[in-house]
Amino acid sequence: MDTTFLGLAVILFAAFIVSYIVKTLNQPLIIGYIISGIIISPFLVNIGASTSTIGIFSELGISFLLFIVGLRLNPKVIKEIGGASLLIGLGQMIITFGATYAVSNSLLHADVITSIYYGIAVAFSSTIIAMKLLSDKKEIDSLASKISIGILILQDLAAAVVLIFISSMSGIGDGGTWESVVGGGLLIFLLLGGGYFALPGIMKRIAKSQELLFLFSIGWCFVLAALFSYIGFSMEIGSLLAGIILSTSPYATEISSKIRPLRDFFLIIFFIILGLSLHVSEIQTILFPAIILSGLSLIFKPFILMLFGRFFNYTKRTNFLVGSTLSQISEFSLIVGSLGLSIGQITGTTFDTIILTLLITIFLSSYLITYSGDIYNKFSWLFSVFESKKIKKSAHLKREYNTILFGYNRIGFSILNALKRMKRKYIVVDFNPDTIAKLNKFGIPALYGDVYDKDFLDDLKLDGLSLVISTIPEVETNELLIETVREVNKDAIIILRAHTVEDAMKLYDRGANYVLTPHFLGGEFVARMIKQEKVGDHDYGEERKKHIKMLKEIVEQIGDHPMIEKN
Question: Which H helix or E strand runs over 321?
């Protein structure tokens, strides 16, 4: 009997059983995938499942992961990272690398090369883990998430450079010469140039068929992976480059959505194989180094991120959320480690240490991200040192007001215009210092503060308010706002925002007068236009002009939508 399909059946069924139990206990599914891999590893060996076949699944998973990462690395996205994310990300990577190198070399007595690999491993955070858990929590649009995603994009770019460098060393280690490295660099340059100039026209024809677009995308990924593997570089850099080249295409988003089911499947396989890859017999040797490296990732790295956040005048809650989101090490760490192992720069024990560190940090950071709000509520006093005193000083505004708008985003923009037309005495509260600076530039009364901070809310003149509006989507934040306002003001009208019907009903139960549900309101607005029998271009002309004017004002005052994949 062929054990390949038996092994795959065991892997998937065990993953389902364990993940179902984990989901029932309201724990992150990623934890279930990793645990199932650890549990079934001995069983697969006993039934004689081919490790080479399992390894092929792992390689396929890594190729797809890197291809999808590459699709997000459009060179234009560098402009959208933001100055704060750029400087915080660079500072964190440099300091974390240096600290990990020093600790590895002195405390763990690792040699120079091993210490460098450990430093690289800890410096990067996992895009996959962060994006998945933030999407699950529906917090992808929050300020902390945008800062985190900006840092992750920067890390992905840095990781791509590291992979290219190690890949070139791999070619030399296999008996190649510097000519082959130069040739590989020239090939990369030609592919990037050809992709920019020739690929758009080709893809325009291919995109007429959805099936052809899907097939071309998968084929493009594996052709470049095979090509780079053949010339002595790694297939990983080929997969990553394939995604980067396609990222400039107008069809990048559509390609990403087409291969998402494959991505989800291989994500599961990837995390299961992480559990399978761990050599339990080496635990006694690698446990102490893995604990030290995990401590650097889970404690020191968030500490550095929160310090930098304080420097940029973010609130302590924002700084904590960014630090907790980026507290694990990256899947790139495993890929970099495997390349180092393949060219003989590190030992199998070092690679196992990186695997165990990855497992520990993914396991613990998953809980840290999932329950970050609860953790912050209980220990917020500990994080006061990560908040600039300027924030507390800004909580005083002499202007009289009877209306507060919490959160100036795309929804807040339109609401603010309505408040101006009504000539209401208002202020805007936001916890993004860049937003406050823009509002002040336009002469709009604005206050910098975190709505989730009970002390900050108590400092506001809530008893004299007639209208409270929050465009913040987090249901816990809005519940706190309702509670705090109602303690001193029973008559104020409270209008809030919610992502889901469930959240909206919860806020109504807590005392909200009205809850905005943007997705449904958009449908209602279009329905009203249709009911008014607007059927021709002339009928929609005035609406279009008003909408274009509003969009231009939004871009001027807020900026465009972030070009970051939302899932």
Answer: helix 316-325
Helix and strand tally (H, E) in the chain?
27, 6
* One domain for residues 370 and 403: no
Q: Where are the alpha helices (DSSP H) in 47-177?
A: 51-72, 83-106, 112-123, 127-136, 143-173
Q: pLDDT digit of tens for each residue in the chain (567 aa)?
A: 566 677 677 778 888 888 888 878 766 677 777 777 777 766 665 555 555 666 676 677 777 777 877 777 666 665 656 677 888 999 999 999 999 999 999 999 999 999 999 999 999 998 878 877 887 777 776 778 878 888 888 888 888 778 777 766 655 444 444 555 566 667 777 777 777 777 777 777 887 777 888 888 888 888 888 887 777 666 777 888 888 888 777 777 777 777 777 767 776 777 777 666 666 667 888 899 999 999 999 999 999 999 998 888 888 888 999 999 999 998 788 778 878 887 888 888 898 899 889 888 988 888 888 888 788 878 877 887 887 766 554 445 556 788 888 888 667 777 887 888 888 888 888 877 777 778 877 788 888 877 777 777 777 878 888 889 888 878 888 888 898 888 888 888 898 888 777 888 888 888 888 888 776 666 656 666 666 655 555 556 666 676 677 666 666 655 554 443 333
Question: Residue 68 in contact with residue 243, Cβ under 8 Å?
Answer: yes
Distance CA 21, CA 133 (A): 18
Smallest CA-to-CA distance from 409 within 434, 443, 384 is with 434
Task: Copy the structure tokens of residue 215.
Answer: 């097939």
CB 69 within 8 A of CB 419: no
- Is the distance from CB of 551 to CB of 533 less than 8 angstroms? no
Give the angle 217-358-100 at the CA atoms, nearest 5°. 115
Answer yes or no: do 530 and 514 share one domain.
Answer: yes
Same domain? 374 vs 436: no
Q: Are 333 and 282 in a shared domain?
A: yes
Which of 339, 363, 384 finishes a domain?
384
Distance CA 344, CA 45 (A): 26
How far is residue 291's CA from residue 361's CA, in Å, rounded to a whole number? 9
Which range of residues forms the domain containing residue 523? 389-557
Q: Which amino acid is at 409?
A: N
366-382 burial, b at 16+ Cβ within 10 Å, e below that, comes to bebbbbbbebbeeebee
Q: What is the CATH number of the domain that holds 521?
A: 3.40.50.720
126/213 same-domain check: yes
Q: Would you tell me how many other CB atoms lie within 10 Å of the CB of residue 332?
A: 28
Three-state secondary-structure class, residue 403:
strand
